[in-house]
Amino acid sequence: MNKNGKKIALLCSLLIISAVTLSVLYWLYPNQSQQSLNSTDQYSNNSNPSQLHKSPKNINQLDASFNSTSQMDTEIDCKLQFNSAQHLIVNEHTRNCFEYFISQYGERNIDEIRHNFQLYLAKTFQASQQQQVLTLWSRYLEYRQDLSKLQTQQPSQESYQYFQTIFNSMHDLKQRFFSSTEIEGLFGSEDIYQQYTLDRMKILENNELDTSAKAKQLQQRFEQLPQDWQDSLKDLSKLDDLHSLTAQIKARHGSSQELRDMRVSLVGEAATQRLEQLDQQRSDWKQRVQSYLDERKTIVDSNMSTSAKDQAVQQLKQKQFQSTQEQQRLQTFETVYDQGGTLPFSN
To answer: For residue 42, is pLDDT > 50?
Structure first.
């Protein structure tokens, strides 16, 4: 796979919701823990769990030669599933299986990967099952190879339009190799996630909306997600929206009222009050640190002896920062200040 292909894959993988600090999470949702993102299985409409048939053999007992060197301590991730009629159910497990072998690329060439995968199927699945998997595997390999050759023009600034163009090109490529049912099974979760992230980018980049309107549209778009996605992403999504919109307001020196209106639209009145308390705590800490550093500089620049300076600085620190935790935190600011760096205050 060439560098352009890897770059495209990387850019698309970067379309994820970024996390911000755990302290903000606490203030937004003090009584809730953040949920992890769990992908759900995509089964065919005429199938249910009681009808599923997995590999008839124990994959844990397979020859380790199917693993590459970097995979020696891992289990082969090929939980392929078949319905009661022994038809392959194309879902995320299918793609995980394919990608497990494709990830060996670099340690093994494509021909070796093809050969090993075919041997693995022969050792693990019935003949009728093998043929179904091999047919889809062959098309998936062609898709991945063409994906690596996909060309996109690098813009001066990466934006919603740029990433949407990549997403559209990838979707067109999928349609060349797979049916709509196969696309849904192989890429359904990924497509939902990427399109949601792209829509968020579009809203955030819309200069015709104020931040309060953006917050409302972001919330509306979030509510269009399937319920299980909402349950998984609600905390992380709101945190990222909050971070992005706050940065926009501060970049153009927006008013405190604008900031408050945006927060209320996005997270509600109660969470907004908690965020305002957090803002006040951060402001108080900033003032205390800056005051300490200014007084410390006065002592250091004085004509006192070195021992007297050290004693005065220590007394000043103990007076203004009485807890051990605060004094430990202060050390970071002292070090950065002495090195002439920008003090790491939270925004």
So the answer is: no
